[in-house]
Specification:
Elements: E1 8-10, E2 15-17, E3 20-23, H1 36-48, E4 53-55, H2 64-73, E5 80-85, E6 87-91, E7 97-98, E8 106-107, E9 109-113, H3 117-131, E10 138-142, H4 148-165, E11 170-175, H5 179-187, E12 192-196, H6 210-217, E13 220-224, E14 242-243, E15 246-247, H7 250-265, H8 270-276, E16 284-290, H9 294-304, H10 311-319
Protein name: Aldo/keto reductase
InterPro entries: AKR, FDH-like, NAD(P)_OxRdtase_dom_sf, NADP_OxRdtase_dom
Domain NADP-dependent oxidoreductase: 19-318
Length: 320
C-alpha cells in the first residue's frame, strides 16, 4: 500500500513514513473508553488508507493500546511501529481500581519508572508480547524528565546496542519539552525524536533549540500534540478549551482565536493549519495524531488532503 502523500526517510535505519501517523494513546482509552471493535476499526481504516506509522507505549492504557494495535495490525509487515521504554508494568497489589493517569481502564497492573538497561530489555520483551511481533522498528525513551542521568547511563546505551545488533532500526526519546530532548540529540547517537506540543501553530519553542540540533545531527522528528491537547482542534476555540491538558489560559485562548480568524480569512481553518504547520520544517518527517475511530481517521486524512495557501503562514506569524 502506498503511504499517504508519499513517504519520507525516518531515522538512519532505512525506515520511511508518510506525513500523517497514527497516535495510539486514544485506543488505550485516553480520557474516555473505546471498545475493542471501534479501536480495531480505527487502526484498520488508517492502515487501509495508507497511514504507515503507528506509535504506542506501555503507558497508554497500561498495555491496552499495544495489545489492541497488535491485534488489529496482525502480521502486516508494511507498517512502522514505535513504542517506548521507561515505565515497566507489574502486577498491582490489591483489587483493580481506576487508573489515575488519564486512561479509562482498570488498573490491575502498575507503572514503575525504570530506565536501566535491564528495565529497557524487560520492557521491550513485554511490548513484543503485547504487540504479537518479533520486532519493533523504533523505541523511544519515554518522558525521562526527572531521570536524565538514568536514561543517559542505562536506557540510551541499551538502545544503541540493540540498534547495532539490528534488533531495532532506530531509537530516540519522546517528551513534552524541547530542552532535554535537545541535550539528548547532542549527547547521544539517537536518530529520531518525538516532540509533543512544542512545535505547533501556538507554541513554536522547539524551533529555537531542538529542530536546529536535529538538522545538524541528522535526527528525524515526529511532531505530536499539534492541537496542544484541544485548543487548536476546533474551527473556533471556545471557553473551556484545553491547552496542554489543562484549561487554556485567557492569553492562549485569545491567541488561538486570532489565528483562527486569520485562517478564516484565507479560506481555511485552525485545525487544518495546525496539522500542516509542523510539516513545513525540514526536520519534521511526520505529524502524529491521536485517532480513536474510523471517523476520526477520515477527518484527519481530510485535513491532510491539501495544504493551506502559502500566504497564510506569514499572516499567522504576524498574528502571534
Amino acid at each position: 500500500m502506498t503511504s499517504v502523500h508519499g513517504t519520507r526517510s525516518f531515522g538512519r535505519g532505512g525506515l520511511r513514513v508518510g506525513p500523517l501517523s497514527f497516535g495510539a494513546a486514544a485506543i488505550g482509552n485516553l480520557f474516555t473508553a473505546v471498545d475493542d471493535a471501534a479501536a480495531t476499526e480505527a487502526v484498520r481504516a488508517a492502515a487501509g488508507a495508507g497511514i504507515d506509522y503507528f506509535d504506542t507505549a506501555p503507558h497508554y492504557g497500561l498495555g491496552l493500546s499495544e495489545r489492541r494495535l497488535g491485534a488489529a495490525l496482525g502480521d502486516r509487515g508494511d507498517v512502522v511501529i514505535s513504542t517506548k521504554v521507561g515505565r515497566l508494568l507489574r502486577p498491582a497489589a490489591g483489587a483493580p481500581s481506576a487508573d489515575s493517569e488519564g486512561f479509562a481502564v482498570d488498573a490491575d497492573v502498575e507503572r514503575v519508572w525504570d530506565f536501566s538497561r535491564d528495565g529497557v530489555l524487560r520492557s521491550i520483551e513485554a511490548s513484543l508480547e503485547r504487540l504479537g511481533r518479533d520486532r519493533i522498528d523504533v523505541v523511544y525513551v519515554h518522558d525521562p524528565d526527572e531521570h536524565f542521568a538514568a536514561a543517559m547511563d542505562g536506557a540510551f546505551p541499551a538502545l544503541d546496542e540493540l540498534r547495532r545488533q539490528g534488533v531495532i532500526a532506530s531509537y530516540g526519546a519522546g517528551m513534552n519539552q524541547s530542552a532535554m530532548l535537545t541535550r539528548f540529540v547532542r549527547e547521544t547517537d539517537l536518530d529520531a525524536v518525538l516532540i509533543a506540543g512544542r512545535y505547533t501553530v501556538l507554541d513554536r519553542s522547539a524551533a529555537d533549540d531542538l529542530l536546529p540540533a536535529c538538522l545538524e545531527r541528522d535526527v528525524s522528528v515526529a511532531a505530536g500534540g499539534v492541537f496542544n491537547s484541544g485548543v487548536s482542534a476546533s474551527v473556533e476555540p471556545r471557553p473551556g478549551a484545553t491547552y496542554d491538558y489543562a484549561p487554556a489560559p485567557p492569553t492562549v485562548l485569545d491567541r488561538a482565536r486570532r489565528l483562527a480568524a486569520v485562517c478564516r480569512a484565507h479560506g481555511t481553518t485552525l485545525p487544518h493549519a495546525a496539522v500542516h504547520f509542523p510539516l513545513r520544517h525540514p526536520a519534521v518527517r511526520t505529524v502524529l495524531l491521536g485517532m480513536r475511530s474510523a471517523e476520526e481517521v477520515r477527518t484527519d486524512l481530510d485535513l491532510l488532503a491539501a495544504p493551506p495557501p502559502d500566504a497564510l503562514w506569514a499572516d499567522l506569524e504576524a498574528a502571534l
